[in-house]
Amino acid sequence: MAVRVDGVKILQETIALAQLASDIRAWGQELGFADVRITDVDLSAAESGLAHWLAAGCHGDMDYMASHGTKRSRPAELVPGTLRVISARMDYLPRDAGDDWRERETARLADPRAAVVSVYARGRDYHKILRSRLQRLAERIEAAVGAMGFRVFTDSAPVMEVALADKAGLGWRGKHTLLLNRDAGSMYFLGEIYTDLSLPTDAPTSAHCGQCEACITACPTGAITGPQRLDARRCISYLTIEHKGAIPEALRPLMGNRILGCDDCQLVCPWNKFAQRAVLPDFDVRNGLNNATLLELFAWTEDEFDTRLQGSAIRRIGHERWLRNIAVALGNAADAGLAGDADIVAALWGRAGHASALVAEHVAWALARHGAAIA
Q: Which amino acids does the record list as binding tRNA (predicted)?
């Protein structure tokens, strides 16, 4: 009889946890997440790949990638007691993006006067938005089950978010290393809740890239060195956001007019014809960053930069790197039919004596590209 009672109890608990997992998905969607899945914490299959990537130095000067030992690939070491990871994705393509959004983005890349900012960064800072909503989701779960151990993450700690989302079945890792979903492409953010609840897990999905290597071919700097292999040291997103020093001269001409981030591998991906629009207004374009010119943004003072980009993820790079990036793009305009353009040269001369040696060096390089080298 005891065995039977225990068996009934286990069955009841299993049913209750399955219902809770279903509720979590529904609650997540109410909070603006496109999908929510659950996985266990075994990332042993991804751990060796991370170790080799770090050993090869592909993380560049992102020292934080190597500073936490195995906590990144072993969630229970980062947050003791973690049994499951609730992985969520939130679409960020602006609500008013037309069906031709990829064609429009590609056209701007060909306009040497245009300042191209990665789509994800044109609205409000996703870190705060996702973290707040993940916290609300976790608190709703706790209200339903009682006290539980949990911690929320959004690109804010040593978490292998793509590996976890892949394992949870939110999508598969594409050849550009981003997560792909058959119904939504890759234009979304990921966030996680580490929890000590023994929730039922979701099954991973299969990969659907096939023989396509459009993303590898499209990478302007050759940073995608093979399927699912990225050398961050060559990646424009890394160079314009994470890298704090001088941008290697050999890579500058390859950056074109991309001043913060790079979407090229996503623009050519066939799956992004299914990219979904954001449900939250937070990801609507601010400061006209979908149509801004290089000269317009280069003219911002530090106070304007800080004020205009209040609440934006861009603000974290600071005005100095903002000017560094735009100077490179203005220099590259010389190779796109605007060599010696009076307005561009005048704007660069206006920053030639900048107090920052970093800015001054990139401005001098840009002037030289226009045949106006500083004596």
A: 244
Catalytic residue ranges: 155
Closest to 111 measured CA to CA, from 364, 337, 360: 337
Query: Taking the model in full, what pTM does it have?
Result: 0.95
Binding positions for [4Fe-4S] cluster: 209, 212, 215, 219, 235, 262, 265, 269
Residues placed in the known binding site: 72, 155, 179, 190, 209, 212, 215, 219, 235, 237, 244, 262-263, 265, 269
Q: Give bridge partners of residue 37 from the DSSP assignment.
A: 87
Could you read off the pLDDT of 38-87 as tens digits, one per residue?
A: 999 999 999 999 999 999 999 999 998 988 889 999 999 999 999 999 99
Per the structure, the complete domain to which residue 167 belongs is given by 2-95+125-195
Q: Is residue 43 part of a domain?
A: yes
CB 265 within 8 A of CB 176: yes
- The secondary structure of the chain in percent helix, strand, coil, rounded to multiples of 5, reads 50, 10, 40
Annotated binding site for cob(II)alamin: 72, 155, 179, 190, 237, 262-263
Q: Are residues 221 and 184 in the same domain?
A: no
Residue 309: pLDDT band (50, 70, 90) is very high
On whether both 160 and 293 belong to a single domain, the answer is no
- 135 and 253, same domain (yes or no): no
